[in-house]
Structure to design on (114 residues):
């Protein structure tokens, strides 16, 4: 069993920054991809950013140049640095990892006030 613990969400004014963290623990084999998804009210969950074990990244067009994903393989942790936050970035952000199977975090709320 793999557990994911997310942290770093909260309330921030537009233009501000937040850094999300997601630490994986438990029966970890070898984590391949790690990523962040988000789901706004009334919308489908969407990929925000992903990173492979080797460091290759992929971003949604809406966050390119604004968000940065990184990971610490030794700590089994993935981060999402979010800058210049906008009201439309408000959502629940979910961590996701692929370790043979896909695992999800519990979600952390990010609210951007205009």
């Amino acid at each position: 069993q793999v557990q994911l613990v997310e942290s770093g969400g909260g309330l921030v004014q537009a233009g501000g920054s937040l850094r999300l963290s997601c630490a994986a623990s438990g029966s970890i084999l070898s984590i391949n991809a790690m990523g962040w998804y988000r789901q706004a009210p009334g919308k489908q969950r969407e990929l925000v950013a992903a990173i492979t074990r080797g460091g290759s990244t992929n971003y949604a067009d809406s966050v390119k140049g604004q968000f940065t994903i990184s990971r610490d393989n030794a700590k089994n942790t993935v981060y999402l640095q979010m800058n210049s936050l906008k009201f439309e970035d408000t959502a629940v952000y979910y961590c996701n990892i692929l370790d043979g199977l896909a695992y999800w975090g519990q979600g952390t709320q990010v609210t951007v006030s205009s």
User: Anything to note?
Assistant: The mean pLDDT is 95. The two ends are 40 Å apart (CA to CA).
